[in-house]
Amino acid sequence: MKETLKPGIVYTHRFRVPASKTVPALYPEAEEFVAMPEVFATGFLVGLLEWACIRAINPHLDWPREQTVGTHIDVSHEAATPPGMEVTATVELLAVEGKKLVFAVEAHDGVDLISRGRHERFVIDKAKFDARLGGKRERA
Q: Where is the active site (predicted)?
């Protein structure tokens, strides 16, 4: 981690929602999802918020040796967004506690605030992380 990784980093990420990021596309194997409205899926919204956090801090890491993984997410999904609309995710790094990073996150679709909450990520050494995963696969 670089010395520049400090609270106060703010990043804004924009994403136009395609049909492939709607509820029916989330789990096409599940007839319940396929029957639901074609709106931006909460699962993909979470991914977008994570993506914005990653983009915010990657310049402050020794990327790609150092990376981050999501460890906690607590967000609302307050309004439906149809495909074609642009979602703006804004994230702010609130705290750096060792390797734990805490963010405030929110997303807006140009009409409504669609999400807000907190997200935590943990800085990892990619090679060490992959080695632990290999050991887990061997134990399975």
A: 42, 50, 77
Q: Which of 42, 88, 92, 108 is catalytic?
A: 42
Residue 42 is among the residues annotated as catalytic for this protein: yes
Of residues 13, 50, 81, 90, which has the active-site annotation?
50
Phi then psi for 14, rounded to 5 degrees? -110, 145
Query: How far is 61 from 65, CA to CA, in rounded Å?
Result: 8
Closest CA relative to residue 49, chosen from 85, 76, 23: 76
Encoded amino acid at 121, one letter: R
Task: Report phi then psi at 99, rounded to 5.
Answer: -95, 0
Say if pTM beats, i.e. exceeds, 0.85. yes
CATH architecture of 10-139: Roll (3.10)
Q: How far apart are CA 47 and CA 53, in angstroms?
A: 10
110 in a labelled binding site: no
One-letter identity of residue 113:
L
